[in-house]
């Protein structure tokens, strides 16, 4: 909690004081021995969290969008085509990145709030081959969670490289990347990792690194995995000055994740999602996302008739809780609440109470006094 405001948007999420304390330490040289050790531990922890022991980790100044761009420019060559599995705003973004580099692509899309069936992916791949396929694990706009194991099963043994956007999922939804056969997974610190924004985080398989080595089209300088590889192998080296304080903060955040334990962490995220939704349902709020593909990291909730988006969110802020507005087809008609990272049962209850109060203040008739009681039985793990 910062200044008594609870940030319940789907990123940035509340940052643990341990992370903030580490980031407040004096900035040292990017070659300072203890910093180099922190960088190495951070990369090692990231591999462990993603269950990707054979992967090559990359953590550098940037954001999730830079990591998306890195995945695309390093894996798709001149004359090759990308396949995008699209579930919303961040699926569209892969298309925009491809456009920016003149890369041809096709999309298989589901209506917002639903997901593409694995059979549709299989049918598409039976008709045509691609250099790589992108999967947005959780699309933060629609709240849809992809069946990544089913998609990876379809992709197993094929030549297409598998790109997994874990920005709204990694460390909140299990991504056992090694076993799944993912080639590039990426994220950013400000969601389920519970650290401030400012870094791009990516892991590449050997197959992905070999693809980059053989590329004819070298489309980028800063986003080139080959240029960063020596730095990630020896973080005391120089390509572009390391984000010293941000890396230290992320190192601490990854320690916190591993101290909690992955099983427990995923169980907590699932319980938070169930609890929050039970509370919302008790108020009569309906989910936008289809029940078959709900993410554990956020919920997208329809407003009751007559509720006004801007006044509701302003009222929420007065009640000390920040939620996000809807995007695309649900802009103004739904709001989004993140429940990931360092969120716990107290925050879920606080958010539910604030939602109740804010709807009532807006003159909306709802069942009051029931949300927290409905959530409580779910909030253990
Ligand atoms: N992918 C997904 C699924 C996201 O939610 C986001 C950020 N909301 C991004 C990519 C882009 O990340 P960033 O905002 O850090 O560039």
Model description:
This protein is an alpha/beta fold. It has helices at 17-23, 33-49, 64-75, 89-100, 118-127, 148-155, 177-180, 206-213, 225-233, 244-260, 262-282, 309-318, 345-361, 371-375; strands at residues 6-7, 56-61, 81-86, 104-109, 132-136, 138-139, 144-145, 161-165, 184-187, 199-204, 298-302, 321-322, 324-325, 334-338. A seven-stranded mixed beta sheet has the order 2-10-9-8-5-3-4, with helices on both faces. The chain is globular and about 60 Å long. The model has no long low-confidence stretch (mean pLDDT 97). Bound molecules: 4'-deoxy-4'-aminopyridoxal-5'-phosphate. Residues 11, 63-65, 68, 90, 136, 139-140, 165, 167-168, 188, 197 line the site of 4'-deoxy-4'-aminopyridoxal-5'-phosphate (PMP).
Count of DSSP strands: 14
Largest pleated sheet: 7 strands, mixed
Number of helices: 14
Strand order of the largest sheet: 2-10-9-8-5-3-4
Give the low-pLDDT segments: none
Alpha-carbon distance between the termini? 22 Å
Q: What key phrases describe this protein's structure?
A:
about 375 residues, alpha/beta, 3-stranded antiparallel beta sheet, 14 helices, 14 strands, binds 4'-deoxy-4'-aminopyridoxal-5'-phosphate
List the helices and strands and how they pair.
Blueprint: E1 6-7, H1 17-23, H2 33-49, E2 56-61, H3 64-75, E3 81-86, H4 89-100, E4 104-109, H5 118-127, E5 132-136, E6 138-139, E7 144-145, H6 148-155, E8 161-165, H7 177-180, E9 184-187, E10 199-204, H8 206-213, H9 225-233, H10 244-260, H11 262-282, E11 298-302, H12 309-318, E12 321-322, E13 324-325, E14 334-338, H13 345-361, H14 371-375
Parallel strand pairs: 1-12, 3-4, 3-5, 5-8, 8-9
Antiparallel strand pairs: 2-10, 6-7, 9-10, 11-14, 13-14
Helix pairs in contact: 1-10, 2-10, 5-6, 11-13, 12-13
The structure holds 4'-deoxy-4'-aminopyridoxal-5'-phosphate.
4'-deoxy-4'-aminopyridoxal-5'-phosphate binds next to helix 3.
């Amino acid at each position: 909690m910062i200044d008594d405001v609870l940030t319940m948007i789907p990123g940035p999420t509340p940052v643990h004081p341990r992370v903030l304390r580490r980031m407040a330490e004096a900035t040292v040289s990017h070659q300072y021995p203890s910093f180099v050790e922190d960088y190495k531990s951070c990369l090692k922890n990231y591999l462990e969290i993603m269950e990707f022991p054979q992967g090559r980790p990359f953590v550098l100044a940037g954001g999730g969008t830079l990591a998306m761009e890195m995945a695309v420019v390093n894996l798709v060559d001149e004359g090759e085509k990308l396949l995008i599995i699209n579930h919303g705003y961040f699926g569209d973004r892969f298309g925009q990145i491809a456009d920016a580099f003149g890369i041809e692509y096709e999309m298989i899309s589901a209506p917002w709030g639903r997901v593409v069936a694995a059979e549709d992916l299989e049918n598409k791949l039976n008709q045509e081959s691609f250099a790589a396929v992108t999967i947005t694990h959780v699309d933060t706009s629609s709240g849809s969670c992809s069946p990544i194991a089913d998609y990876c099963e379809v992709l197993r043994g094929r030549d297409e490289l598998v790109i997994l956007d874990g920005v709204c999922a990694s460390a909140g939804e299990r991504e056992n990347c090694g076993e799944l056969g993912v080639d590039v997974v990426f994220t950013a610190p400000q969601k389920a990792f519970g650290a401030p924004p400012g870094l791009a985080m990516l892991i590449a398989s050997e197959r992905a690194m070999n693809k980059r080595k053989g590329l004819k089209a070298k489309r980028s300088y800063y986003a080139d995995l080959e240029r960063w590889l020596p730095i990630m192998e020896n973080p005391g080296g120089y390509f572009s000055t390391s984000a010293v304080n941000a890396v230290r903060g992320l190192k601490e955040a990854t320690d916190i994740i591993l101290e909690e334990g992955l099983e427990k962490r995923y169980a907590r995220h699932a319980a938070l999602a169930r609890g929050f939704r039970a509370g919302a349902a008790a108020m009569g709020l309906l989910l936008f996302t289809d029940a078959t593909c709900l993410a554990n990291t956020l919920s997208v909730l329809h407003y009751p008739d007559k509720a006004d988006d801007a006044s509701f969110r302003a009222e929420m802020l007065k009640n000390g809780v920040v939620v996000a507005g809807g995007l695309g087809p649900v802009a103004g008609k739904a709001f989004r609440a993140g429940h990931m990272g360092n969120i716990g049962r107290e925050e879920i209850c606080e958010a539910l109470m604030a939602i109740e109060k804010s709807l009532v203040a807006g003159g909306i008739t709802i069942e009051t006094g029931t949300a927290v009681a409905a959530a409580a039985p779910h909030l253990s793990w």
